[in-house]
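INPUT
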Amino acid sequence: MAVDTCEDNVSDRKFDIKELAELVDGEINGDFNLKISGFAPLETAVSGEISFLVKSAEADKLPACKGSAVIVPMDVEEGPVTLLRVENPYLAAAKIHSLLLEKPFVATGTHKMACVADSTVVPRQINMSAFVTIGERVTLGERITLEAGVVIGDDVEIGDDTVLKANVTIASGCRLGKRVIICPGCVIGSDGYGYATDNRGFHTKRPQVGVVQIDDDVEIGANSCVDRAAYGVTHIKSGVKIDNLVQVAHNVVVGENSLLVAQVGIAGSCRLGRNVVLGGQVGLADHVNLGDGVMAAAQSGIHNDQKPGVRLGGSPAIPIKQFMRAAIQYGKLPEMGQDLRKLKKNVAALQAEKEE
Amino acid sequence: MAVDTCEDNVSDRKFDIKELAELVDGEINGDFNLKISGFAPLETAVSGEISFLVKSAEADKLPACKGSAVIVPMDVEEGPVTLLRVENPYLAAAKIHSLLLEKPFVATGTHKMACVADSTVVPRQINMSAFVTIGERVTLGERITLEAGVVIGDDVEIGDDTVLKANVTIASGCRLGKRVIICPGCVIGSDGYGYATDNRGFHTKRPQVGVVQIDDDVEIGANSCVDRAAYGVTHIKSGVKIDNLVQVAHNVVVGENSLLVAQVGIAGSCRLGRNVVLGGQVGLADHVNLGDGVMAAAQSGIHNDQKPGVRLGGSPAIPIKQFMRAAIQYGKLPEMGQDLRKLKKNVAALQAEKEE
Amino acid sequence: MAVDTCEDNVSDRKFDIKELAELVDGEINGDFNLKISGFAPLETAVSGEISFLVKSAEADKLPACKGSAVIVPMDVEEGPVTLLRVENPYLAAAKIHSLLLEKPFVATGTHKMACVADSTVVPRQINMSAFVTIGERVTLGERITLEAGVVIGDDVEIGDDTVLKANVTIASGCRLGKRVIICPGCVIGSDGYGYATDNRGFHTKRPQVGVVQIDDDVEIGANSCVDRAAYGVTHIKSGVKIDNLVQVAHNVVVGENSLLVAQVGIAGSCRLGRNVVLGGQVGLADHVNLGDGVMAAAQSGIHNDQKPGVRLGGSPAIPIKQFMRAAIQYGKLPEMGQDLRKLKKNVAALQAEKEE
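OUTPUT
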């Protein structure tokens, strides 16, 4: 049988359900002495495992569950298995699952086929794979993981517990905070796209002498790019989560806990507030400011500043409700055109009669 | 003179034209004893080479051809060179050209600057370049090619005759079939984009413990990304061809022989049937199901399930014919607006007169 | 204090302001004997540094400037600091800043952990980092920089002063000119996306035996892809600047000094003239020809040939002015629909009365 998981769902450690309840501020209804060793979906959970249920409407699935406990919303009060009742089952599941998978950092040290410049001090607590390259004067925190093929330029700073996955490039001078995850193939700190054009159409490169700063708890998906600033910093603030193949241009600021879904493109000098959410393939023109909590539907194109909390859709983007109504009408454009032609004819006829 | 080909068009091997005719189920009209050693476009072919003609309307180009034979559609019956008449010249040309370029696999073995974990057994029939990294317990088939900079995680399985080009990353636990081609810079098995958000707006990562399964004869273009499932598998079925810079999110299933053109983005848990064709930059919202043979024009945005064979365009996507008519009308919107204002005025005048 | 620059703004070399004036064809008003050692924005410049001002309307910022000189447009005639008056301050700033940052090439040679095939001759004047792989018969010019993780296939040609940044892949047979910059993660010369499909829906790969040719002074951004031609060349002509995550398909020709902004996608066999500008996320269908100087707004989708100088927007793309007016009207579609329904009713009523 093929096993479709890459990590052991059942760890060696066991957790008291009381400990888990405390972590997620939940209430236990059932066996208070239960030991939990794994996490699995409701359908596949076995003894010792905990599952979750997002909505009380799905509570009829509980009797079939073969796991030992289920995280449920508060309005599910009783069940055939031990319940862990919480405000937000989705969030509680993420926290408990993460805890169950947690493994202590085991330092493997620096691989003999890694290449570190002389002026860089490598701490003992590191996992540095083969074919990693580190430039001069790089500052490395504790418990950093550098997978194979990672390239780190001169004068980079990397905080504790940060993970750079395979084939990531961090160009010179960039700064990464703590617990940052950079997925394979990402490029952080490539030159911004800036040229000055003469009157014959030739382009001269504008030197890009700024850096990228990535704050704590940021995650950036595979093959995404964050360009260095022309001057100063391109700044990804704490808690931001960026999906795959996203482009963040020079001098952009992305506010705390914002979400950039796959293939988003943000042009130069945009400033995003906190908890902005940009759907897949959204594009921002340069110098656009988005207030806190702005949300844009997939494929939107945003050209103008937006106030906090605004929801957008379309290209050029308009308020999402207006966009959804306009989009429905768009499909009716051909018959609207016909109606208009007919009306014009009829009205002209009425006018002609009038004049007779 | 610059030579604009990277491979020898004229190989040492020669093929009987009868052998080629058999491969493509074609009929020879001309020299049955011809030996073919190469393939070239009609304009540049020389003696010993075979060319092709897609449409009989282009048969007037045949007299100028200096090659030895030409693959033609069945309705071209005679010509000034030897003809190989087939149902589908385009397909026959691809098959014959591929055969002519075919080279026996010559195992170069494992480069001394590659890095393979102890528990992985490397077969003799392998081409492993410098700076390749392979994790623990990886299962490798026969005649695999691993170009420089490839990084393979723990517990990966790779089938016979598969090629991983330069700087490809295959994360832990992923499974690749036979004759798979993964182009440079691809990332297979990066974590899916999944977070649970608390009421203060902080995001907790949901563990992504599934894998990616890629079946036989799949090809994936440069710098594309296929994310591992949250649970279970992200599944690319046999014969699928994916272009460059494509994003396939967690838990997506792509049906057999589907085509995903460059920069397509597919959100989480979508299910595509067989022979789906998505044009460049198409986006799919999460959990969308597309039936067999669905086709979407470039830049479409698909939000809803689609029945087999449907053709779509636009964002949000509508049936392609409706989209094409609406798109024409879109350009006329300003004058439609003017017409409407004028009509409203005229009708109001007519009504006013009436009431007088 | 965190320093937000990755390069020393103040170099050891000092330049006479007269020398700088000559470089940019400018006029000095002030101290003709000034020595300039660095470049900085108006707000942060200090003694010895030169700044710039794009528009004369901003001349009120000059008194606060603490730098030694400011590049200004011609219509600023006098100021509290030494002025360098030029036609195009933006361009002059780029040229002067570049000069000030210029460093002599210091050859570090070939790193002992690089891997070069026997038949390739490496010139002395090279910077080749660790974990670079170079194939057979590669031709290398003078003063080339190859960062870590670069992979170069067989028979590649690379001109003088070209820079391949970290983890770049150049596939076999491709040709790069002089002073080319390829940013991290780029893939040049991956196979074009070409298949022939049989009547059961199975795809046969069409061999892609052409190459990519990149002329002098081209820059290509991070993680972009330029595919090799099916036959002949995919050709990026001199002075073209390509941003990050751009896709250029097989057999495309991009004319001199064209600009392709991030996430642009160009399908097979398109031909772009000189100084074409494609905004972010623009898509081109295959075989489209764009005349010199065509400009397309971000997210446009271009399906038809375009005459020189045309400006476009929308998907499918239409002339930009028409698009901007249509886009405004688009948001009014719901009320247009309402108006139409009302008008139809009113006109029907008028007609009915008439017939009575």
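end of record. Confidence is low (pLDDT under 50) at residues 1-10 of chain A.
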